[in-house]
């Protein structure tokens, strides 16, 4: 599985959404399941998928689907 | 609402301003919030007209009235206090911005005590607390807010509040060489963790930090002091840094943390004042009612609150831990007040 596929899978699984919803508009609180509980679940899923440990500050600024990719590639060497 | 530059405050040391330097911007922020809420929340507007601007709201008012300063359709999350059965609960209405700000500020304050690294984490509570995601109890919000410091947080109590011993043993074995983080509510930790470990004759060899809050009333009635609590946590879990926090659902985020010297600290996001219950004037020395202010609440008028807790200022800019600002001590709920607090309202059903 490519990194993008892993990334997408985490979103779809945690938030129970389809691939068509994975757009640049997907943001924290833009859908019902991406609330504060869902957020921590997403972080756990991504840490598991990429075998990384994110810093608290990165978890706080992880505010959207595109922003997350940026954080993972800049700070955790996950290439997309 | 951008009358306060939260981002700037979040980029600075939350305990880095002397009281004098803090007051210059802090009082203005509170005054601006008072004006904002008077203009956006009708009930608060009436109160400030009758009682004067910046009037402190008794925390009970959030049980009796729906108080908000935003249009109803902007409410993203409703937080509730942890009332006992039959008690009315406070309802706090948050928009997206306020909810996020609370998380950021909580993280910023707590990082000052435990650092930025996330640690293996034990939550000394039951996972059932987070069941309903839209109606958040204060307990759920506390657990979730602190979970950001944990790696794969594990709940040590099952649905029936029984200690999950296998999970605990596995955790202790796995992380015997690194500092961990434990989080929970004071009375529940005492009753369902410490007492159970004692009963089962278990002593853990964990190291790291325990952060706990939620009220002392029940432990005070059992004659358990903060020192005794710390001592038993050390003895039965091995954890030697035990930090209490003081906070309430009406001002989530801007909590007051206890430092290793045993003093509760106000950060740049909140302030503590002691009020004489007879004259209702602020006093610098001696015991009195705790008034809490916070510059975080924008979606509801909870920035100046009169609590039912008794406390005392113990110093200003002089804590040996180096953090600046006011430090204080709490003696518990004043007589005649109703039972509040995440751990004090827990009843076995």
Offer a quick outline of the entry.
The complex is a heterodimer of chains A (80) and B (349). Chain A is mainly alpha-helical and 80 residues long.
Report on the structure:
Chain A is mostly helical. In chain A, 57% of the residues lie in helices and 0% in strands. Chain A contains four helices and no strands. In chain B, helix 2 packs across helix 3 and helix 8 crosses helix 10. Helices cover 32% and strands 25% of the residues of chain B. The mean pLDDT of chain B is 90. By secondary structure, chain B is of the alpha/beta class. Chain B folds into two domains: 142 residues, no CATH class; 144 residues, Rossmann fold (3-Layer(aba) Sandwich). In chain B, the strands form two sheets. In chain B, strands 1, 4, 6, 7, 8, 9, 10, 11, 12, 13, 14, 15 and 16 form a 13-stranded mixed sheet that branches. Chain B has a three-stranded mixed sheet with strand order 3-2-5. At the A-B interface, helix 2 and helix 3 of A face helix 5 of B.
pLDDT average of chain A, as an integer?
Answer: 93
What gap, in angstroms, lies between the N and C termini of chain B? 43 Å
Q: What percentage of residues of chain B falls in helices of 4 or more residues?
A: 25-40%
CATH fold-level assignment of the largest domain in chain B: Rossmann fold
Overall tally of structural domains of chain A = 1
Care to count the β-strands of chain B?
16
Provide the number of structural domains of chain B.
2
Shape of chain A: globular
What best-fitting shape of chain B do the alpha-carbon axes yield?
A: globular
Say how many strands of chain A there are.
0
Low-confidence stretches of chain A: none
Unreliable spans of chain B: none
Give the overall average pLDDT of chain B: 90
N/C terminus separation of chain A:
12 Å
Count of separate DSSP helical elements of chain B: 10
Mind describing the biggest β-sheet of chain B? Answer: 13 strands, mixed
Structural class designation of chain B: alpha/beta
- Helices and strands of chain A, in N-to-C order? HHHH
* Quaternary: heterodimer
Structural class of chain A: mainly alpha
| Rg of chain B, Å, rounded | 20 Å
